[in-house]
Design brief:
This protein has 2 domains: about 350 residues, Beta-lactamase; about 100 residues, Nuclear Transport Factor 2, Chain: A, CATH 3.10.450. It is about 35% helix and about 20% strand. The chain contains 15 helices and 15 strands. The strands form 4 sheets. It has a 6-stranded antiparallel sheet with strand order 2-1-11-10-9-8, sandwiched between helices. The protein has a 4-stranded antiparallel sheet with strand order 12-13-14-15. Strands 3-7-4 form a 3-stranded antiparallel sheet.
């Protein structure tokens, strides 16, 4: 614990220094992150982004970019963005803390705490948190609907949406439901005897040195402002909703750095009991035994061999992404102040590729890629080494075909990258590998078949415009 406190103190001392925070990122990695973010802001019409990176269980980078509002003089890394549905994991954590104290159980029925909800005697708290309750979502739209111009209370949301007929029997389907989390927040307040944010401040945020605000109050001078676009029109200021519309489903505002502190607690299994972290991350099963891919306030899956714990968030004028890679002791937080672009997710995924360890490289793939690149260059010159071609490939590359290859490839020059796409596969006695060559304004897909072995001849080498 003392070591963790030192790390937190170190991060606070370095609050405004990206260079200080970036000591565990190489200069090349920092430059790559800067390029990813600045390019995305410029190309997608995103006013600003705030980024935090965790590596080896500590914050190694925190920086803001672009225009956070019409009044802020420059981007501030400590500015609190509206994180919206990323807040759900904190509501779930509050429930788990109350369960640890014996004040409730995940398997308690909702009717025990909040009366008059449709089939509340059949819906468990676990089903609220895992989006399997059947309660209709009150905000499926990606825009503000008319009612959001008027303030509302959690009880008002429950009255209007949680007393409708269920969309399905509890536990039989998965459907994202903000309504379920509003009910869960009311349960936290009833059982703890405190407003939800007060409980979270006392039990989670202050112990982790996190500054979290009610997003309804994080509006105006000194705060990031939300923006949006209609189709491909100009970027305009988004009008915030009236108070009360997100509550336990997404009421929080905080900086990327502060959200990263929570990610570190997850990685270190601190603050909550290890069993609580495990419960939150374990994907819930439906009644038919199928896995939903969602736990209690977080989604969970694997990508490219990396285990992922993730949640995104959408508020009026804001989109955010929080991805934790527990086995790699890393996390990426990207917060943006627009709700009209997927750049938040694209940036997070691209940054992850920079910071995560590369998968083991297969020696055969390395050799095959080098040979394919060499033949690509030769075809651009119109002079392939025919000893590298099978009889069928030699038949395919007639003088006319070679001229077409030469005339279309030569003007492109050398590719900026030439990379293997996917894995090698066997087909028809040959090894199939696909590649992508990228140029300044164009990409090409290359499909190859070779004889088995490091020096197997090429049976096929076809080139086409890259597909998205």
């Amino acid at each position: 614990m003392a070591f963790t406190r030192c790390l937190l103190f170190f991060a606070l001392v370095c609050l405004t220094s990206a260079a200080c925070l970036g000591q565990l990122l190489s200069p090349q990695e920092i430059a790559q992150v800067d390029t990813i973010v600045t390019h995305s802001l410029a190309s997608d019409g995103v006013p600003s982004a705030s980024v935090a990176i965790v590596r080896d269980n500590q914050i190694v980078f925190a920086k803001a970019y672009g225009k956070q509002s019409e009044t802020l003089a420059g981007p501030r890394a400590d500015a609190p963005y509206q994180i919206a549905s990323i807040s759900k994991q904190f509501t779930a954590a509050a429930i788990l803390l109350l369960q640890d104290e014996g004040k409730l159980s995940l398997d308690d029925r909702v009717s025990k705490y909040v009366p008059d909800i449709t089939d509340g005697d059949k819906i468990s708290i676990r089903q609220l948190l895992s989006h399997t309750s059947g309660l209709q979502d009150y905000w499926p739209q990606d825009y503000s609907f008319k009612a959001m111009e008027t303030p509302i209370t959690p009880e008002g949301i429950v009255e209007r949406w949680a007393k409708k007929p269920l969309d399905f029997a509890p536990g039989t389907q998965w459907q994202y439901s903000n309504t379920g989390y509003v009910v869960a927040g009311l349960i936290v307040e009833k059982v703890s005897g405190q407003p939800l944010l007060d409980f979270l401040n006392a039990r989670i945020f202050r112990p982790l040195d996190i500054t979290a605000l009610d997003q309804d109050l994080a509006i105006g001078d000194g705060f990031p402002q939300g923006y949006g676009r209609a189709a491909l029109g100009p970027v305009r200021i988004a009008t915030p909703p009236a108070h009360g519309w997100l509550f336990a489903a997404g009421e929080l505002s905080m900086s990327a750095r502060d959200l990263a502190k929570w990610d570190i607690a997850r990685l270190n299994r601190t603050l909550l009991k290890a069993r609580d972290w495990d419960a939150q991350e374990f994907p819930v099963r439906l009644a038919d035994g199928s896995i939903t891919g969602y736990g209690l306030g977080v989604a969970t899956w694997s990508v490219d061999g990396h285990r992922v714990i993730e949640h995104s968030g959408e508020a009026v004028g804001f989109l955010s992404e929080n991805i934790v890679y527990p086995d790699d002791r890393s996390a990426v937080v990207v917060l943006t102040n627009t709700w009209s672009s997927s750049a938040y997710r694209v940036m997070a995924q691209a940054i992850a590729k920079v910071i995560l360890p590369l998968p083991p490289v297969d020696a055969a793939d390395l050799t095959a890629t080098a040979r394919a690149r060499a033949l690509f260059d030769q075809l651009g010159l119109g002079t392939p080494d025919r000893t590298q071609l099978t009889e069928n490939a030699g038949y395919y590359f007639t003088p006319v075909t070679l001229k077409d290859y030469h005339d279309s490839l030569a003007p492109l020059g050398a590719p900026a990258s030439f990379t293997l796409v996917g894995k090698a596969r066997l087909r028809g006695g040959f090894v199939n590998r696909d590649y992508r060559a990228t140029f300044a304004g164009q990409s090409l897909d290359i499909s190859t078949y070779t004889e088995p072995g490091d020096q197997g001849r090429f049976e096929q080498f076809l080139i086409s415009p890259a597909q998205p």
